[in-house]
Design goal:
Length: about 750
Amino acid sequence: MAIRNSPDTMQPAYFCPLPGYAVTVTRPSTARIALNRPLRRLFDYRIPETMTVSPGQRVKVPFGRQTLTGLVVETGVTPPDGITLKPILEVLEPWLALPTATFQLLSWASDYYQHPLGECLFTALPPALRRGRPSQQKQDEHWQGTQNIAPLPANAHRQKALLESIQRAPGISTGELVKAGFNRPQIKSLRDKGLIELSDPQHPTSSESIVTVDGPRLSPAQLAAAKELPQVTDRFSATLLYGITGSGKTELYLHYLTQKLQDDQQALVLVPEINLTPQTLERFRRYFGNRIVAWHSALNDSERLATWLRIRHGEPVILIGTRSAVLLPFTNLRAIVVDEEHDNSYKQGEGFRYSGRDVAVYRAHLNQCPVILGSATPSLESWHNARQGKYHLIRLEQRAGNALPPEVALLDIRSRPLEAGLSRPTLNAIKETLARGEQALVFVNRRGFAPIMMCFDCGHMEECPRCDTRLTYHRRDRAMRCHHCDLHMAASHSCPKCRSENFKPVGQGTERTEETLAEQFPDTPIVRVDRDSTQRKGSIQSILAKVNSGDPCILVGTQMLAKGHDFPNVTLVAVVNADGGLFSVDFRAPEQMVQTLLQVSGRAGRGEKPGKVLIQTCHSDHPLLKSLCQGSYAALADQLLAERQIGALPPFRAMAILRAEADTMQASLQLLDSIKPMTAANGIETWGPLPAVIARKADRHRAQLILCSDSRKQLNRLLSQICQHLDQSKLPASTKWIVDVDPQETG
Ligand code: ADP
Ligand code: ZN
Ligand code: ZN
């Protein structure tokens, strides 16, 4: 009999604690191990006599001629007859790299998203541990002040500042001090003078909360919302905080955590893209000091390992992180917040295609703790759950402080002369805004509107030779780029087809808009915010600093500007082209368009002065845009949900996509066609197989089969069968397939 031990305790697997006396049962001699391989199978090994292992532990195992890092999934398994198992070589640490709850979470996600368990489990380890490095880290030194009072020289400003920092946060580590701009010789010098000493590393105080500010007093609306937030942190609850932009949701999260989270507990705050909103991190730091820890893609491997270890060892941190933070091995997680829960970046687009938001909800359920989803424009999934009573809905429909919601107006640009997409009334509105000493934001909706090169004589448009897309034109380096593969080339001066010189860029990109604005407003700084202008580390910070100075300027940018920024002096938002999502083939496009427009509109008038939003469109009588002007997302969401229900689309049904790509379209379609008979099972509806909207990407031909079902369980079961079947089929090496559960893009 195999007894499932509780892997969180250090009990060996064969020790069964019964009250009064202990029973020794057969020691498991075999273990099933997951490897970091894209294989839907596990590998059995023998556990040597001298070794005990438990599920979640990290081990080294022989694999062919290699030695690989593995994670124990199960012990006491029966291998097929006649197979001699190789032994596990080494247990890498005495504790579980993946504690029980994290292990369960990942197993569930592996099944839900139909992704190989090994890869799912390894996603939750920091890169160093994936590679099999030891988990011991060089202990960082922690510092505290002494009783000694020795005067420092009057000009030793840095040393004084250093001493103050240490006195303010006793237990602060050398690493943290170096990050704050001090250096090791300065620390050594203070130590030599007897002014600081090492603090006990067993009890680092650096992670204790240092509440250095009193936040603003909550408004009556915020207070009412705060009362509705979950009162206990030891039971599962899901809350949707629907609060309009600038209603003070972040302030509420802060208030909630200060009220409910105990000093020894962990919390997780998921945010879409940390680098874009350093302000959020600063706000949390002001409340919780060193207890705030950040997790995002810019961390290096050793920072990742250090943070991962702090969380695994139960330090009471409040982690602010992007998507993958939800997979960290928390041991005492008592609250989860998902900010901007509608944001697309929560869904991983490749490999293990999980949704950070949805995994967060499941994690809260496993942990029996509250999860709060916040947004001014909730996803239709969450809105539906709230409407059905599965989530508790809190509405916060007033702006915090003195700010008023902006006034939104449509501006029909049919038959109006435009300059780089900007109409005269828009330019006039910008001019008036600047004249009042305020800032304007010009939003260029990239989706569906990239600038391309076109011949005005023969109509030729430059296309990517490897993909079924047009190349976009980048004025700065006169280059043509494909956004679907990495092709780029110099733009030619004449039409490659008819040699006409009348070969020019059309369509609006941020660069062209920026140039036109610079011509129109030569004395005003123009600040461009898009993927290209923010690539360099720290560039977003300097951009934000410029805007936060409050001086008149024009911000020009794409989707990135819609993300949670707080620009108190922006009073005008002009949307260059609203129509991208109105007639798209993707069923999520209208939802995303409405969310983006409302989010970017929400940047207007967040301070003392009222804001105005001008939306340029060729479809000013479209019902969605008209509702948008009335400003209530709740009404729009209900309207969009009703359409989804009629179309029998998510969230009313479960959806998955099976995608195939191959050297020919025929091969892709054939693969999907071979699957279709399996779907005939009751209740599964299929659309396709069809070529994808971009049917050719980097010379690979792509097709898809959409699967829908009223029963998620049934769909999940079918997907398992499909994956198993395809794994066993002998496909040409160049034919690839993937499954995407709850797809965000269906094109
Ligand atoms: P959201 O997260 O909903 O966009 P924030 O929490 O960022 O809203 O608040 C928007 C702005 O209003 C911020 O500048 C914030 O400091 C301010 N604010 C929030 N709550 C209050 C309050 N109770 N009193 C005064 N200002 C507030
Ligand atoms: Zn031509
Ligand atoms: Zn291409």
